[in-house]
Specification:
Elements: E1 3-5, H1 16-19, E2 22-29, E3 32-37, E4 43-48, E5 51-52, E6 61-63, E7 68-72, E8 79-84, E9 99-103, E10 115-120, E11 123-128, E12 134-136, E13 155-156
Antiparallel strand pairs: 1-4, 2-3, 2-6, 3-4, 4-5, 7-8, 8-9, 9-12, 10-11, 10-13
Length: 162
């Protein structure tokens, strides 16, 4: 699971109003990536594992519509790395932090999927367009319960690519 949080705070998540108008703009600053809300000046940090990505306005190169794929980390079972699929020069490098994900179905391969961000309370979850739900390693401080995901009170926000 990936959580999003406002820069400079220790609190994960944002309120529902702030998440409206999300466009999935992805920004590069060196080897780091972040997301920006289309509805205002709020810049968001992505949290990959326990390492926060810090972005500064004016220092990032934006690119839109980048597709991501998940690849395993050799020799580290359960670890996946998000890598860029269609912009070879804008990819997370080998030294970037890995993402620990659990698949709902271990037989499914997480490559070239289009992802949806799903809001559950203050937690953001990632779902593939094909229906696989992803979560972080159970027991992590960043985990959210994976039950009741189809509750109609939960809010979908526009799709983005990872």
């Amino acid at each position: 699971m990936v959580l999003l949080r406002p820069p400079g705070t220790g609190q994960p998540g944002m309120d529902g109003e702030a998440m409206r108008g999300w466009d999935g703009l992805q920004l590069r600053n060196g080897m780091h990536l972040a997301l920006r809300s289309a509805g205002g000046p709020q810049w968001l940090d992505g949290v990959f594992a326990t390492r926060a990505v810090t972005m500064a306005k004016g220092t990032a190169l934006p690119f839109v519509g980048t597709r991501w794929k998940c690849v395993t980390v050799p020799g580290q079972p359960g670890l996946w790395r998000l890598v860029c699929q269609n912009h070879d020069d804008y990819c997370l490098g080998a030294d970037a932090p890995a993402v620990r994900l659990e698949k709902s179905d271990p037989d499914h391969v997480l490559t070239g999927l289009q992802w949806l961000l799903y809001r559950r309370g203050d937690h953001m979850m990632i779902r593939s367009r094909g229906g696989d739900w992803l979560g972080c390693k159970r027991g992590s401080a960043f985990c959210a319960p994976l039950d009741d995901l189809d509750d109609p009170r939960h809010h979908w926000i526009p799709e983005t690519y990872w």
